[in-house]
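Example record

One chain of 209 residues, shown exactly as stored in the release files.
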Amino acid sequence: MIRLWGRTNSMNVQKALWTLDELGLRYERLDAGMQFGVNNSTEYLQKNPNGKVPLLEDDGYAIWESQAICRYLCNQYQGSGLYPLDARERGRVDQWLDWANAGINNSLSVVFWQTLRLPEDQRDAKKLQEETDKTVAALKVFNQGLVNRRFIATDRFSLADMAMAPVVFRCVGLQLIDHSQPQWAELASWFAGVEQNQWFKKWVVQPLK
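Predicted structure tokens for this chain:
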């Protein structure tokens, strides 16, 4: 039995859920994190000492970190369509997966908290602007990477696209960019395609809070 621990409004949990559904796997999701607690319990910390979500358990095997979970699922359950076997194609997917973590996720997280989750008296306008600028700069890199491409890493939809879809959804929802403007044409074209994915609609499209 596959179990995934995490709340559905977490970008990282969304990626894992999306991967599970793309692969057609049966699983159980259990609420954890923020208002649900659980992730600070002794039992949970024994499986994920970071105390974060998501956490995946697969027949006694526990793994954490969303990108690692997605890679594991594809490796374990024949997900080569999402995570190619060819070394060079896989390298491109890994390149963008790692870039998403290092290049944009941290700054976007700060923007998200400064905009929506922190009480107003704890918000820092200077920090918000600095991290917004970093996020937009990273989106420009992503937009450039999509020039003459339908998908970001290879010639087909992959984990790399799934990693960036929740990011772009939040950036658009927070109005960090206006993707109807011509300078975002490549990103907008890519996003229009991603928006048609049934699992994107199920897990990613929800109110930002």
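Notes: The beta strands are 2-5, 27-30, 55-58, 61-64.
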